[in-house]
Amino acid sequence: MSFNEIFETYSWEETSRSIYAKTSADVEQALTATKRTLEDFKALISPAAAPYLERMAQLSQQLTLKRFGNTIQMYVPLYLSNECNNICTYCGFSYDNKVKRKTLTSMEIMEEVAVIKEMGYDHVLLVTGEANQSVHTDYFKKVLELIRPHFAHISMEVQPLDLSDYQELTPYGLNTVLVYQETYHEEDYKKHHPKGKKSNFQYRLDTPDRLGQAGIHKMGLGVLIGLEDWRTDSFFTALHLNYLEKKYWQSKYSISFPRLRPFSGGLEPKVVMNDRELVQLICAYRLFNEEIELSISTRESIAFRNNIIKLGITSISAGSKTNPGGYAVAPQSLEQFEISDERTAPEIAEMIHQQGYEAVWKDWDMNLTR
Q: CA of 276: how far to CAs of 91, 349, 362, in Å?
């Protein structure tokens, strides 16, 4: 059975009602369970779990230390292009946002790489808008070929591609692909993506399946928190993760927690998630899945990022620029979104060290698997 077939058996409204109907007894059952189910996850993300946050945090910390030790993986985004053919209501790269567009040349990419390497990074996340005429599989091949000698781990967050595209890119050194569903609420998804290929909800929903079939090393999942009810969206993310882990067991998985941030011509969040609720969600994922990697970006504040290190997070970005050429080529160009934590990579590494953890710059090398 495909995920789409599973997804079709669920109702957004009934799922939401089920989450909000969870009781203290359901939460206590989830906290004491040795193997937690999707129903347990519902209880842990429900309003009824709010009074149990301290206990959830303690359990999350214990499970994370057992699986990942005192380590935090460091990564940095490299924005290659802000060209985009989609209209998305929440994104600075949206087609109808009249700003100067730029796609980095090979020389400009290497200028960016030089700065990123000076920062100490061995794990880079390539990011683009969705412009199939200029930012396509052949462009990605050239980029991967160019930067592969300089990084141990290359992740990509670009438009969903066909299965054959992923199969073509993997031999060029592509390790990880992040593809967020944005929201699993199909009707609201259409409201936020009125034009462009991204408006195809089904194609995006099927993307992790294509990644699994292509044998990608790791997949990153998530939703854009603020578009819809975060509890219901998070349940569908967990449902998707549960399906993928069983079907594509050779791949690894990560979850990210992007909260809607200001940008040029921005959208106000429909639902505001406060810091305490984000901690609850992070801990709920850890209690639900001990193996999952959990990532937090520079969207979040300094205080939040300092305090979340010990509660379940396993990877973190630092010194990030969210505009193409932001590190060396065009530092004043349009950002996709504003960042909240502007500390440098060494400053974040020192913060991690002060908390008794080790900042890991490289924990994967494809050469070791050959």
A: 25, 24, 31
